[in-house]
């Protein structure tokens, strides 16, 4: 492990995991006092843990798992108030597992794979009673959720390895990953190890039992496209309703930065009883709404095309749809005004006039083509705007 790294006084995060490193953990690692994260796992480090590590007052995470470290685990780690996660598993530690502070309550899996490390003895009975209380409480909670799940209907569009109660168990505060005007998005970890996104809709609208909605949702359940988030199914009861729209917040990036559209193509069934596909309140998000909505109060595929054009302009300009251009001016109006004032207008000049100055190294042809598509999508009149299929 190169000693020069620890001369970086402002170093906050150190991740050397899975690099086949050998040798001992250097004692001068503590000289980088601002460290909050250390991951040395999956190497071939040996020797004892230097006690100087316990002096890192800002350290939140320490992962030393899957090495050949030996000796005793310093009990002072349990007294570090900043620490939230420690992993000592799969080493050659020996002696009695320390019980100071945090160390007493860490999961046994974080000490697993150390055959010479003696397990906890004194606190065992207290921990067993606490675990029994947790299990009992969890059992009652599961029974309650099961009773609630019987009032819901789960419609799946493919064979799934989870049930209604697995989804409902994830609808709690700590799993929230996003909120919007239409609802709340939760991260759900299913028993098969897969993670799903669960959108709980809070807007008022007509029922999921509406014939038009059911036809739309069944169509979406059959869509298979690499850049569209797959709709696995939906839960409904008599109060369930839906309102989804095209905007940048609904476009998700995977680990390779490939875009995947969520909430794709759902008709805005959000209306008063007796009003056929006519909106009684604003559908979509401000800044993405097609201008014809103001006088027709109707939405269709071309409304989503307009929203898609706004998303493209966001990418090109690096600006938000509203809030940066003055009162009553959105990104579309700003782009039109900026490009109309050019002395020598052209597609290339127009694109360069509004492009984000932070972008570099892009092909001009690609930028111009993307800009032209965006401007076609945000045409003033919906009659001049293509549909999704035409685009």
UniProtKB/TrEMBL annotation:
Pfam families: LRR_8, PK_Tyr_Ser-Thr, Pkinase. One of its GO terms (cellular component) is plasma membrane. Residues 66-391 form the Protein kinase domain. Keywords: ATP-binding, Glycoprotein, Kinase, Leucine-rich repeat, Membrane, Nucleotide-binding, Receptor, Repeat, Serine/threonine-protein kinase, Signal, Transferase, Transmembrane, Transmembrane helix. It is found in: Cell membrane. It is a single-pass type I membrane protein. InterPro entries: Kinase-like_dom_sf, Leu-rich_rpt, LRR_dom_sf, Prot_kinase_dom, Ser-Thr/Tyr_kinase_cat_dom, Ser_Thr_Kinases_DiverseReg. PROSITE patterns: PROTEIN_KINASE_DOM (PS50011). GO terms for molecular function: ATP binding; protein serine/threonine kinase activity. Its EC number is 2.7.11.1. The keyword RNA-binding does not apply. Belongs to the RLP family. This is non-specific serine/threonine protein kinase.
């Amino acid at each position: 492990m190169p000693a020069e790294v620890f001369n970086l006084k402002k170093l906050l995060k150190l991740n050397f995991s899975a690099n086949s490193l050998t040798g001992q953990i250097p004692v001068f690692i503590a000289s980088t006092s601002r460290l909050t994260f250390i991951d040395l796992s999956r190497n071939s480090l040996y020797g004892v843990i230097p006690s100087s590590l316990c002096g890192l007052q800002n350290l939140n995470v320490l992962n030393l798992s899957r090495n050949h470290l030996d000796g005793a685990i310093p009990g002072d780690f349990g007294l570090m108030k900043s620490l939230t996660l420690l992993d000592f598993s799969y080493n050659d530690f020996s002696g009695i597992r320390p019980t100071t502070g945090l160390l007493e309550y860490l999961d046994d899996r974080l000490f697993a794979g150390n055959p010479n490390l003696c397990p906890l003895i004194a606190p065992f009975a207290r921990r067993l009673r606490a675990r029994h209380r947790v299990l009992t409480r969890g059992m009652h909670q599961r029974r309650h959720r099961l009773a609630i799940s019987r009032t819901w209907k789960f419609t799946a569009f493919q064979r799934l390895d989870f049930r209604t109660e697995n989804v409902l168990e994830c609808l709690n505060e700590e799993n929230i990953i996003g909120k919007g005007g239409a609802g709340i998005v939760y991260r759900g970890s299913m028993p098969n190890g897969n993670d799903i996104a669960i959108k709980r809709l809070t807007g008022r609208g007509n029922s999921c039992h509406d014939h038009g909605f059911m036809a739309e949702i069944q169509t979406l359940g059959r869509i298979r496209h690499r850049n569209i988030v797959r709709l696995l199914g939906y839960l409904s009861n008599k109060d369930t309703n839906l309102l989804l729209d095209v905007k940048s917040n609904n476009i998700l990036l995977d680990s390779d930065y490939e875009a995947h559209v969520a909430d794709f193509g759902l008709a805005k069934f959000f209306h008063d009883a007796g009003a056929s596909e006519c909106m009684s309140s604003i559908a979509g998000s401000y800044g993405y709404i097609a201008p014809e909505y103001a006088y027709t109060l109707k939405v269709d595929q071309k409304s989503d095309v307009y929203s898609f054009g706004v998303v493209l302009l966001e990418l090109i300009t690096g600006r938000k749809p509203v809030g940066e251009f003055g009162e009553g001016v959105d990104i579309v109006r700003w782009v039109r005004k900026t490009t109309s004032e050019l002395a020598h207008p052209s597609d290339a000049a127009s694109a360069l006039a509004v492009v984000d100055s932070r972008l570099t190294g892009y092909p001009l042809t690609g930028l111009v083509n993307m800009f032209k598509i965006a401007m076609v999508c945000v045409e003033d009149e919906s009659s001049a705007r293509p549909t999704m299929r035409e685009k």
